[in-house]
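Our preliminary data section would be incomplete without showing what the modeling component actually yields. Below, a chain of 235 amino acids is followed by its predicted structure, encoded as tokens that our downstream tools consume directly.
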Amino acid sequence: MKKFAIRKLALLSLAAFSGATVAATVTVDVSGVATTYTLESLSINAQGNVSIKAAGGNTSGGGTPVDPTPVDPAPVDPVDPNPPVNPGTGCADTDTLKCVTTTVGEKAGNVYPSTTVRPAPSLVTAYRFQTLAGTSAYAGSAIATRMTGAIGKRVVISAVAGDMSTADKGLGCYAESTEVSSVSYVVNSPGTNKVRYCHLNPGQTYYVNVGAGVKADGKPNCSSETNCAHLFELK
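Predicted structure:
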């Protein structure tokens, strides 16, 4: 009897809702934000379950919700995984490195004249020079000649001051002799023998690094300023 009465009441309520001239509304409050919906329909099935269809959704309280404005990420310059080598990265005097700036390459015909050098066994002298810009082919040379009673030197042309390593360099870019250590270089001459000549790029800065030769035990082949002495010239 009670179940019948409840269903009858629900049906009466539905009838009243359907015939109303003003739409019924329902308000839902979540965390202080109230949203009001307009009821469109209400139905009850045979088991007494109520289904409600609502539309709209006007919010009040707690502030007006604002859709987040998308922000484009700031552009980031791509990083080259294989940056080009920058010849002539600079030179600074230390206990084991002496920097000498020459005018070779600043204009055609400039030379660094033959000069006597008496370095300590552990000292490397880095002679800075430039290659001429442009497309014209030309050649030059760096020569270290031992003084009387001294021992031969190692000469290496490199983009890095003080670099005496022969690894990863063309055979023409270094020399070590008991008498005269000479390295010849070419610019804009790709067909020239790479065993006899060091191939350099035009308009760049390089260093002729001159130091003691290296013995089998890794130690310098000279032991004093006297037997490390040599003449050096660059053109």
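The longest strand covers residues 33-44. Residues 1-22, 80-87 have pLDDT under 50 and may be disordered. Preliminary results of this kind motivate Aim 1 of the renewal.
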